[in-house]
Every structure is written in C-alpha cells, then in structure tokens.
Specification:
The protein is an alpha+beta fold. The chain has four helices and five strands; from the N terminus they run ααβαββββα.
C-alpha cells in the first residue's frame, strides 16, 4: 500500500463536524411553538444525537439557565433546570459515580419526572387518612 493509498481522516471538533447545534435549536423552537399551539410536548435525547466534542456544551450554553432548578435523588441524582426559555427544560441524570448517563431537553410546562405519580398519590392518601384516624386533633 503506497502512501497515497493510506486513508486520511479529517477530524474536527466543534460545530464543523456534525453541524447539529443550530438544527437542534431550530427543533426546540418548533417544539415550543407546537407546545403553545397544540399542547404537544417533546423530548430531545441529546445522547442519541451524533454530536462533535463541545457541541452538547454549546447547546446547553445557548439555552442558558432560567429561574427554576430542581434536584432529585432517586436511583442516582437528577438535575432538572429550566432554561432561559420558559417551557424548555434540561434534564440530566447521573449514576452513583456522578457521571452523566442521560441528558434530555424537554419542551413542556413541567417535566414528567417532577409530576407526582398517581400510585404515589393514592398511597399518600391512605397514609394521611390513617394518620388522621390515629391522632387526636
């Protein structure tokens, strides 16, 4: 194999490789319009999209951080952050070693992970009822 037959790789970092930052921001804009017009929510799994090194951080930086930040501790930590754009949420899940195992952009009024589950509310009602029956108030 001669030197001219040797494959050459053109490796870039940042936006030059996949060019996905701007299309993802356009997708978020479209999803926000869909939420406002029709009430349809959307989820973008950032870990399922081919992104070049630095692109995920560029997207997160472009979205900024809004007023609401919630942290959950259930089967590992999860951070739920409202972005600068109301209705656009960044949801990040970590493992026990604090490594990111999932990162999603949710376009919704309230991320599903923050909503009380019906079964949990039913259990809470039973527990509260029992507590009220056994205490003198």
């Amino acid at each position: 194999m001669s030197q001219t037959d040797t494959p050459r790789f053109n490796i870039h970092s940042g936006n030059e490789l996949t060019w996905n930052v701007k299309p993802i921001l356009h997708e978020i804009r479209h999803a926000l319009l869909e939420l406002l017009d029709n009430g349809n929510t959307s989820v973008i799994d950032l870990r399922s999209i081919p992104l070049a090194p630095g692109e995920e951080e560029t997207i997160i930086s472009a979205l900024g951080q809004g007023e609401v930040h919630a942290r959950l501790d259930a089967l590992g930590r999860s951070d739920i952050v409202e972005t600068t754009y109301s209705g656009v949420w960044l949801v990040t899940h970590y493992n026990e070693n604090e490594a990111v195992v999932g990162r999603f952009i949710e376009i919704t009024e309230l991320p599903a992970i923050l909503k009380s589950q019906r079964e949990d509310m039913s259990d809470a009602l039973i527990e509260l009822t029992q507590e009220l029956e056994t205490t003198d108030t």
